[in-house]
Amino acid sequence: MKRLIIIISSMSFGGAEIQTLEVANGLVDRGFDIDIIVLDSMNYSVSRADKRINFHFMNKQSFIDFKAIKKIRTLLYDINPNSIFLVDLYPTMYFNLAIFPKKPKKNTVTVIHSTLPRDNKEKLQRKIQLPFLKRIGNIVFVSSNQMDYWIKNYKLDEKKSLFIHNGVDIEKFSIYLSDEEKILITKEELGIENSHIIIGNCSRFRVEKRQKDIIEAVKILKEKGYKIKLLMVGDGEMRESLEEQIKKYELEKDVIITGYIEDVRPYVALMDIFVLSSDSVETLSIAAIESLAMKKATVLSDIGGASEIVVDGMNGYRYQPKDYYELATKLETMIKEGKYKEMGEKGYLHALKYFQRGKMVSDYEKIFEKPH
């Protein structure tokens, strides 16, 4: 039996959590016995996990919780895994503290999901946690652009660094498009007419996600007379602020907020154009890849691995983060020229080539099966 321990900060609704479970579910099917150690108590995404995966919640109470570190040390000893998979810097620090003074095994892996730090607090945390990362034998990035950024800015060992693109079950998403009756029902429930062009977004409502820029762009397009609706799938701490912005611009009939949705496919299926507008953190968005799998033209702020998801002018457009005038211009070009359907088809082929779940799982499996 190939035993693997995964250590992750949380089981919330983010892309890192979804990608981790995609890898774990795929490896379980390939004969791995998997335990996931979660540093906090958040368990929202656990329902996505294969039932053969065991979870252990540390319920940490502080930035460095010595009780949690002791629990991790005990689990590592009792389970005695062949490999360790650490999701981002914080769990990497906890793992190193738990095994101290020993060194990590050669097939220990840390995957890094972020590129630009969101604020000064995160910059400081990186300085604290980087020495722990440099002890790890394999550092995986989810984007080639992101890997280059980290190697250059944090002086990482190129020989220990590689990138593995995030992947999704493309068929699971694309097959939903064949159920036209379900799509029609969802459209009627939301009060969307067939003549509307639907601009969509799926993500947590956080400051760095900048959904406010999408609303600004929609306002510009509405003022020009375009018959569009904005479909925002998600929830979060910025929701009240976004609702105030919508009310200020009198867009209540033009913007739909669904709240948190576990299965986003019925809503992405309605979209003509998918938009992500983040100004930091975002690297290789799972939501954007899922939009490609559902044949949606995609517009991304040009950060992280955006250029690996969107080939500008082929399957969508990229724009400078925070520049909602440029975002509005890109959207208008797609609408005026009727390019979005053709771009969606090309995006689907792009996803098939680069973002298959099976390839992602195989690439991780190769690392975990390295000799100790």
From TrEMBL:
Domain Glycosyl transferase family: 187-348
Gene3D superfamilies for the chain: Glycogen Phosphorylase B (3.40.50.2000)
InterPro entries documented for this protein: Glyco_trans_1 (IPR001296), Glyco_trans_4-like_N (IPR028098)
Sequence ranges assigned to domain Glycosyltransferase subfamily 4-like N-terminal in this UniProt record: 13-171
Top-level taxon of the source organism: Bacteria
Protein name stated in the entry: Glycosyltransferase involved in cell wall biosynthesis
Organism of provenance: Acetoanaerobium pronyense
